[in-house]
Amino acid sequence: MALEHAILVSLLEKPGSGYELASRFDRSIGRFWTATHQQIYRVLRRMEADGWIAAEDVVQEGRPDKRVYSAAGPGREALSVWLRAPVEPETVRHDLAVKIRAAAFDDPAGRAGLVAEVERHRVVHAALLDRYLAGERRDFPDPAVLDAQQSLQHVVLRGGIEYERMTVAWLDDVLATLHRIG
């Protein structure tokens, strides 16, 4: 997926400024696609030049003016073409899994350092799981009344929740194994 597609999805959900888009990436889109603020602004300029998005300057009282972007016809068409194209299943590169396998060739003292690294990863994934669950409670309190857009947003979030649950459980298993083998 190109960053352009993630931006188009976000703008179709709600037009916004570059700052607002970057905040959305930090909050929600970042669950499945990450981008720096600089990348977002660079791609916004290119998308505007290509006619994929339209921009409107909005005057703000007591604050600098802002540029609000929305998806334009050519951007909607590009997204539609992309939606119909096949995508390959993702290949996972997992450095920590390689380190865990490599621990078989290290001494117990070396494996002790790996325990700390696995624990660090577990803390990060548990915190992300907590953040996703809090977002689910905040954004989708009653799944029975969601419209199509909200239902699709929620199913993506549920995928992130299940991924983090699986990762935390796996890391717990790794830690138990490392403690068992010493």
Q: What's this entry about, in short?
A:
Helices cover 66% and strands 8% of the residues. It is mostly helical.
Structure in words:
- The structure is a single chain.
- This protein is mainly α.
- It has 7 helices and 3 strands, in the order H-E-H-H-E-E-H-H-H-H.
- A 3-stranded antiparallel β-sheet has the order 1-3-2.
- Strand 2 and strand 3 form a beta hairpin.
- Helix 6 runs antiparallel to helix 7.
- The longest helix is centred in the last third of the chain and has 34 residues.
- The termini are far apart.
Which residues sit in consecutive blocks of at least 5 with pLDDT less than 50? none
Overall morphology: elongated
SS field, number of helical segments: 7
Q: How large is the radius of gyration?
A: 21 Å
Mean pLDDT, rounded to whole units?
A: 91
Q: What proportion of the residues is helical, as a percent range?
A: 55-70%
Number of strands: 3
- The proportion of strand residues reads 5-15%
How are the strands of the largest sheet arranged?
Answer: 1-3-2
Structural class: mainly alpha
The H/E string reads: HEHHEEHHHH
What summary fits the major beta sheet?
A: 3 strands, antiparallel
What is the terminal separation in angstroms? 42 Å
What's the SSE blueprint?
Layout lengths: L2 H11 L2 E2 H10 L9 H13 L3 E6 L7 E6 L1 H12 L10 H8 L5 H32 L8 H34 L1
Antiparallel strand pairs: 1-3, 2-3
